[in-house]
């Protein structure tokens, strides 16, 4: 849970107990729970508004996925073309240098 181990969780609970006292902890936990529920509801409302707006403009999630998939495919194709040409050019330059200078050996 959030990268927190058992010992760290016990330490956090101990610090909370010291800060708020045993009588305030249930109240703090209730307040935190309500805040988390409100946050979750707010994010769900935002998601539904975005989806509703997209549907009103004629965009559904499937068409968006297909559109971005097409963009990604084209981008990957261009990357492969550019990278492939770069590798070929680098190998040619390496061969030319070896032809001119011969293999370079270290002298001790």
The helix-and-strand class reads mainly alpha
Q: Please report the distance between the alpha carbons of the first and last residues.
A: 56 Å
Largest sheet: none
The arrangement of helices and strands along the chain is HHH
What percentage of amino acids are in beta strands?
under 5%
- The best one-word shape is flat
Mean pLDDT: 79
Number of helices: 3
Regions with pLDDT < 50 over 5+ consecutive residues?
A: none
Total DSSP E strands: 0
Helix content: over 70%
- Assembly form of the protein: single chain
Rg over CA atoms: 30 Å
List keywords for this structure.
mainly alpha; 81% helix; flat; 3 helices; 108 residues
Task: Explain what you see.
The longest helix has 41 residues, at 61-101. The chain has three helices and no strands. It has 108 residues and is mostly helical. The two termini are 56 Å apart. The radius of gyration is 30 Å and the shape is flat.
In a few lines, what is going on in this structure?
With 108 residues, the chain is an all-alpha fold.
Helices, strands, pairings?
Layout: H1 6-20, H2 25-56, H3 61-101
Subcellular location: Membrane
InterPro entries: TatA/B/E
Membrane topology: Single-pass membrane protein
